[in-house]
Write a structure and sequence with these properties.
There is one protein chain. The protein has 104 residues and is an alpha+beta fold. It has two domains: 69 residues, Winged helix-like DNA-binding domain superfamily/Winged helix DNA-binding domain (Arc Repressor Mutant, subunit A); 35 residues. It is built from five helices and three strands, in the order H-H-E-H-H-E-E-H. A three-stranded antiparallel β-sheet has the order 1-3-2. Strand 2 and strand 3 form a beta hairpin.
Amino acid sequence: MRRDVFQAIADPTRREIIYLLSTGNMTLNKIAENFSISRPAISKHIKILTECGLVIINQQGRERYCIANNKPLKEVRDWVQHFDKFWDKKLNSLKNYVEGKNDK
């Protein structure tokens, strides 16, 4: 099942995993050391991150390394920036209107 990036980043644990992986590749065990939840719970979070393309698993011998793939996050950032510009324009118009009213 292909998951949505928004679904993945909605969970604080998954956001923290993405943050950890932004500092470098880590094994599943190394990731799990940073949380108070079980290793199977971390594996489920990693699975969701993998399904939406935010994490890539690379098998090296017996170890599985998680690698961050930030491309989906960049796509979300680009999408959100459109709305930032839209609201900035609207709020600046409102500010100009209000300030203009106060001058009279």
